[in-house]
Amino acid sequence: MSLAVREARQRRHRRVRGKVTGSAERPRLVVFRSNRGIEAQLVDDASGKTMYAASWLQVKSKGNKIEQAAEVGKLLADNAKAGGVKQVVFDRGGYLYHGRVKALADAARKGGLEF
């Protein structure tokens, strides 16, 4: 990823983070997308701790990247529901809500999380 692209994403992410915060009752669902995979975590910004996390390395399906993202979203939703979290705030991390990011969000919604 070139420096200009990375800086543009970070600028978008800072802009979103100015408006979105997570709490223990309603944590922030953070998405990180790389060329190889995708990761997501639920963060309580009040205490600064990660509550739950899921990565493409943990999923069993090694299909295409969109399928992997959907599996990560489902895994994160299952972990969060087991811990009693139902509502989250979605933080797309400066990425477009399209493709892998959208697949992860849709799978998390199907898994029972409310955005």
What is the helix fraction of residues, given as a range? 25-40%
**Low-confidence segments, ≥5 residues, pLDDT <50?**
none
From N to C, what is the helix and strand string? HEEEHEH
Shape: globular
Q: Taking Cα atoms only, what radius of gyration do you get, to the nearest Å? A: 13 Å
So how many helices? Answer: 3
**Percentage of β-strand residues:** 15-25%
Q: Could you give a short account of the major beta sheet?
A: 4 strands, mixed
Number of strands: 4
Neighbour order of strands in the largest sheet: 3-2-1-4
For the termini, the CA-CA separation is 30 Å
Provide a short characterization of the protein structure.
With 115 residues, the protein is α+β, with helices and mostly antiparallel strands. It has helices at residues 3-17, 65-82, 100-110, and strands at residues 28-33, 38-44, 49-55, 89-91. The chain is 38% helix and 20% strand.
Tell me about this structure.
With 115 residues, the protein is α+β, with helices and mostly antiparallel strands. The protein has 3 helices and 4 strands. It has helices at 3-17, 65-82, 100-110, and strands at 28-33, 38-44, 49-55, 89-91. A hairpin with a 4-residue loop joins strand 2 and strand 3 (49-55).
